[in-house]
Amino acid sequence: MIDEKQLYRDFLNGSIKAFEALVLEYKDNLIYFISRYTGGDLSTAEDIAQDVFAHVYVYKEKYDFNYSFKTYIFRIGKNKAIDFMRKQSRLSFNAYDEALEMSSDYKTIEDKIIKTEEKLLIYDSFKKLKPEYQRALYLYVFEELSYKEIAKVMGKSLPQIKILIHRARNFIKTLMKEEVKDNEE
């Protein structure tokens, strides 16, 4: 794991290599995150991510060291993606197909079938969440951001994020219990 804050300090002191290291560390996750706002359009997400890093480069003094660099760029990425989609007059949010992609390293065919069914159940439940719940849960589970960081990225208060994630988890649990119950009957 890199020391992002030290790299950012080095960047502030003129090190282009430090900035490049930050870009290389976070660009893929940022592109994936932005693609959720662009309807899965990776080309557009890459362009927006490039704009994010250009913004950081130009306005480097705006970074608040109280937050992680990842939180900072995700917040900028979210805002730029929403602005772009507004201009395109279509805002969509796709489910997280890639994040729930199936793995092929199972020991037996039975394990593979069980794991596939479990993932499909989770995936189906996740798709039924409100987009706001999806985003919050995605940032928490897949990007491993703290509640405070998620609040910053989503532009919400800490209690609102706690409620969103709590409700999303409960909704998924309820749906999964219902599905398991229906399959047993």
Number of domains: 2
Number of strands: 0
Task: Work out the radius of gyration.
Answer: 19 Å
Strand content: under 5%
Q: Helix-strand pattern, N to C?
A: HHHHHHHH
Indicate the CATH class of the largest domain: Mainly Alpha
What percent of the residues sit in helical stretches (DSSP H or I)? over 70%
First-last Cα distance: 48 Å
Based on the coordinates given, report the CATH architecture of the largest domain.
Orthogonal Bundle
Structural class: mainly alpha
Your description of this structure?
One of its GO terms (biological process) is response to stress. One of its GO terms (molecular function) is DNA binding. Residues 122-170 form the RNA polymerase sigma factor 70 region 4 type domain. Pfam families: Sigma70_r2 (PF04542), Sigma70_r4_2 (PF08281). Residues 22-90 form the RNA polymerase sigma-70 region domain. The protein is an all-alpha fold. The protein folds into 2 domains: 4-88, Rna Polymerase Sigma Factor, Chain: A (Orthogonal Bundle); 98-184, Arc Repressor Mutant, subunit A (Orthogonal Bundle), CATH 1.10.10.10. It is 71% helix and 0% strand. It is built from 8 helices and no strands. The chain has helices at residues 4-12, 16-35, 42-58, 69-88, 109-127, 131-141, 147-154, 158-184. The longest helix is centred in the last third of the chain and has 27 residues, at 158-184. The radius of gyration is 19 Å and the shape is elongated. It starts with a helix and ends with a helix. Residues 89-106 have low confidence and may be disordered.
